[in-house]
Each structure stands twice: as structure tokens, then as C-alpha cells.
Amino acid sequence: AQSVAQPEDQVNVAEGNPLTVKCTYSVSGNPYLFWYVQYPNRGLQFLLKYITGDNLVKGSYGFEAEFNKSQTSFHLKKPSALVSDSALYFCAVRAWGNEKLTFGTGTRLTIIP
Amino acid sequence: DVKVTQSSRYLVKRTGEKVFLECVQDMDHENMFWYRQDPGLGLRLIYFSYDVKMKEKGDIPEGYSVSREKKERFSLILESASTNQTSMYLCASSSLGRGVLSGANVLTFGAGSRLTVL
């Protein structure tokens, strides 16, 4: 079975400060890892993914994520937060060869002006 | 742009009614998915399909069925709606990965269908 944990329901960050949204995963074998974002009244949008190779993955809107195999983590980061980054963020995992994608419970990120 | 279109944005139904949620994608994707989204529970997979007339149960299939008669269309059916099926329903599609990239493909989501069962 595969699973994702997002330990924080809510993260508040001041505008201009760095942000981190945490994600840990459990999967048999090698993982594919994803971050999606949901802005108010909109569908989920893809941000970035890790397949293999470099542990630091860069994605849309200045976001990046670091894959850490020993800690089974894939935390989302951004060096300087914008108010427009306020949204609901979901981490997701898929095992190699498996088409089923499992999501975490989501983290609401609020950037305070 | 890849488009996944869900036919109804908002629906209100009564307990016991049969409900159809329709989803159409225009990118010739093999895979299609139905998730429900609930606060504090995230997205949970109901059913998915990797080919016409094929379906696989997800994590919470009870009370739901699906139909995929054409590649571009994937329908979610609630045979007898209940109040605990009040939720946001999200349809998604992706292409089928090949070989070592199997499973690496990104899901494209529709805007969602918010169902209220009274």
C-alpha cells in the first residue's frame, strides 16, 4: 500500500519569508512524487514532480522540492513567499508501474502581507 | 491545453436519487480517474479506468459505480445517493506511462462537481 502524510493542516508565513510545506510518504519500491496546488474555486494544478535523478526538483511559480530517500520526505519550498501563493497544497505518491496516485490530506498555506 | 470538462459544477439531489456525474477529456488520454475531496481527508480515489470498458476500484468504491464506453468519457454513478456522499467530486485524466516512466505522468484535473445530497 502507498500513503502520504502532510503533518500540518495549516501553515502561515509572512510575505517575503521562505516557506516549507512538509510531506512524507510510504511506498513499496521507488516512488514518483508530486505536488499539486488548488487555488480558491479552481481545480488542482500540477506544480512539480520527482521521477529520478537530482534530488532537488524545480517547478512552477518558483517552487522547488527536495527528495530525501532516507527520511522518505518530499518537502515543498520557496525562498520568498508571495501573497498569491496562498492556496491548498497536496502532496501525492505513486509507485513505479502503478497508475494509481495517492494524495495527502492537504496543507492550507496562508501568506500574511 | 489539455481540457478535462465536468458537466455539472453544482448539483443538489435528494436521498435515494440516482446521480450521474460526467467527465470528458480531449487529449486522447488512456487513464481517467474519479476522486472525492473532503476537508481534512484530502483526495480519495473512488475508481479509475485505464482503457475503454475497463475499470479498477480505488480506495473508496462503495456506493459508486463507473462507466467508460468511450475513451474520452468517464461517468461516475451514484445508484442511490446518500447524505454522506455530499462532497466535491474531481475527475482527472493522464496518458499511460511506458516502461520505466510508467506512473510518472501528470494528472490533469477538471474544475470539480460539488454535490449536495439532502
Low-confidence stretches of chain B: none
- Structure classification of chain A: mainly beta
| Euclidean distance between termini CA atoms of chain B | 36 Å
Which strand-content bin applies to the residues of chain B?
over 45%
Structure description:
The complex is a heterodimer of chains A (113) and B (118). Chain A is 0% helix and 53% strand. In chain A, strand 7 (56-58) and strand 8 (64-68) form a beta hairpin. The radius of gyration of chain A is 13 Å and the shape is globular. Chain A has strands at residues 3-5, 10-14, 19-21, 24-26, 31-38, 44-50, 56-58, 64-68, 73-78, 87-95, 102-103, 107-112. Chain A has 113 residues and is mainly β. In chain A, strands 2, 5, 6, 10, 11 and 12 form a six-stranded mixed β-sheet that branches. With 118 residues, chain B is an all-beta fold. Chain B is built from no helices and eleven strands. In chain B, strands 2, 4, 5, 6, 9, 10 and 11 form a seven-stranded mixed β-sheet that branches. Chain B has a four-stranded antiparallel β-sheet with strand order 1-3-8-7, with no helix packed on it. Chain B is globular and about 45 Å long. Chain B starts with a strand and ends with a strand. The model of chain B has no long low-confidence stretch (mean pLDDT 91).
